[in-house]
Amino acid sequence: MSQYLVLTVMGADRTGSVSSLTKLASECGCNIVDSRMAIFGLEFTMIMLLNGTSKAISQIESKLPAVAVKRELITMMKRTSGYKHQEFTEHYQAEYAGIDQPGLLKAMTAFFAARNIDISSLKSEINPQTNQMNAAIQIALTKETTIEALEKDYFDLCDQIDVQGTITKVNSNFL
After folding, report:
1. Residue of 50, 55, 64, 108 with fewest CB within 10 Å of its CB?
2. Which residues contact 20 (CB under 8 A, 6 or more apart)?
């Protein structure tokens, strides 16, 4: 029976860290089901969803601390289950951009939470030279939520907080 492990890693951005982690997963017999990696300042962070046999998951759990010490990484692991299947009708990306101001991201995430819309991905950036910010939030709509009603409310919110916003349909096969 397949088991799952979420692995989060953070440390100094140094060449070879991602390679060491993916090599360890492979050597332990784990499959990388999903992964994300990003650089924040001088730090890198990576999150992976691994699956494998009970033996493979136990093996990576026991071997990861030594790799983390050698590479000077902070790690966190949590066993989980596979993806939960939900009946989504369509996937969308809500984007917005404007002058950065406190509370923008809070307002946007609260907007979707108040409507019981799950956020599947979020990316937000600020250009420190121009104070311009932009963000992309990927969402999945259930049959109960129509895009027409959501768009109207979303554009009203964008006007209220003085940002430019768009909502576009995205390919649900790769989110």
Report:
1. 55
2. 67, 70, 71
